[in-house]
Design brief:
- The complex is a heterodimer of chains A (117) and B (215).
- Chain A is α/β, with parallel strands linked by helices and 117 residues long.
- Chain A is 47% helix and 16% strand.
- Chain A has a single domain, classed as 3-Layer(aba) Sandwich (Rossmann fold).
- Chain A contains 4 helices and 4 strands; from the N terminus they run E-H-E-H-H-E-H-E.
- In chain A, helix 1 runs parallel beside helix 3 (50-68).
- The two termini of chain A are 22 Å apart.
- By secondary structure, chain B is of the alpha/beta class.
- Chain B has a single domain (2-153, 182-207), classed as 3-Layer(aba) Sandwich (Rossmann fold).
- Chain B is 42% helix and 19% strand.
- The chains are: A alpha/beta (117), B alpha/beta (215).
Chain lengths: 117, 215
């Protein structure tokens, strides 16, 4: 299951996106399928508005709990400088669900020197 | 100096309200059961809180609930209840407040934002608070500082109700060898709200007795 965080503008949007992620993650967990959340790095860092930051960091925390519950759950944070083919590469790798869980992979380097999530 | 503390009737909320009052703050103690009675998930009640408090110097977003279950068993009601109280209410109340110059917001996250078995809803809500803290710190600077604290096991009615063996096992995973007292967490919150940390904003202070490091 691949869930890409949508752009949100208010808490209603955050709640709607989180509910969608919850439903899809639950379905994937019950089916024992790998789970990948795709996030934007500037949202994780809080650089692009409060609603987007809340959603991205909520999904990251939720992903780590899924991993604690033995799900093959991981996340990818893309920067503005990332190449689409690089993102697809990491989605494909993490979708195989082979022995990696609870990890955040940064595609791009804009997170360097900032608070790490 | 004016402060708002939500969830102030017991536990960490009560301790931080008492601590801020001892520091000379006029504290609006918001709770479902005692003090200024209000439901932080209600827009009408949030408007009453803001009107009663006026411009504030300190806001402590403490009100929170748990509805634990593994993801495969969790209901949508359990998920949404926690998200709405722990994250939505804190965000909307913070947005509604008027802050004095140099004010400080401190939100109660949790070590669970790093991931915790059986708490997809709770950890997501606390991760959301971490995101809110970072973004608001950038948005409200330089007038207002915004930080969060992430406690772990803290003495409460809930921990007192736990079977002794369960509690002992949890404490054994904490390098400092004990759970936190609410007053200790309150002390750290008061420090984050005080001029002693005037150059700190957008940060999460993990106050977990070392549990986040232990095997």
């Amino acid at each position: 299951m691949i869930f890409t965080a949508p752009e949100v503008e208010d808490f209603a949007g955050v709640e709607s996106a989180l509910t969608d992620a919850f439903r899809r993650a639950q379905e994937a967990a019950r089916a024992e399928e790998p789970i990948v959340f795709v996030l934007r790095n500037e949202h994780l860092l809080g650089q692009s508005g409060v609603p987007g930051a809340m959603l991205a960091n909520a999904l990251l925390a939720g992903m780590r709990t899924l991993a604690a519950e033995k799900c093959a759950a991981n996340a990818i944070a893309v920067g503005e400088d990332h190449a689409a083919e690089d993102l697809q590469h990491w989605i494909a790798l993490l979708s195989e669900g082979r022995g990696v869980a609870g990890e955040l992979v940064h595609v791009g380097a804009k997170h360097v020197g900032k608070v790490q999530s | 100096m004016r402060a708002i503390v939500t969830g102030a009737a017991r536990g960490i909320g009560l301790a931080v309200a008492d601590r801020l009052a001892a520091d000379g703050f006029d504290v609006l103690r918001v709770d479902l059961a005692d003090g200024f009675v209000a439901d932080v998930t209600s827009p009408e009640d949030r408007a009453r809180i803001v009107a009663e408090a006026g411009p504030v110097d300190v806001l402590v977003n403490n009100a929170g609930i748990t509805r634990d279950a593994r993801i495969v068993k969790m209901t949508e009601e359990q998920f949404l209840a926690v998200i709405r109280v722990n994250l939505g209410a804190a965000y909307e109340l913070t947005r509604a407040c008027t802050f004095n110059e140099g004010a400080s917001v401190v939100s109660l996250a949790s070590r669970a934002y790093l991931g915790n078995f059986g708490q997809f809803n709770y950890s997501a809500s606390k991760g959301g608070l971490v995101g809110m803290t970072r973004a608001l710190a950038l948005e409200l600077a330089p007038r207002v500082r915004v930080n969060a604290i992430a406690p772990s096991l803290t003495a409460s009615e809930m921990t007192r109700a736990m079977p002794e063996k369960v509690l002992d096992k949890m404490i054994a995973s904490i390098p400092l060898g004990r759970q936190a007292e609410p007053e200790e967490i309150a002390e750290t919150i008061a420090a984050l709200a005080s001029p002693a940390t005037a150059y700190v904003t957008g940060q999460v202070l993990v106050a977990c007795g070392g549990r986040s490091l232990a095997p």
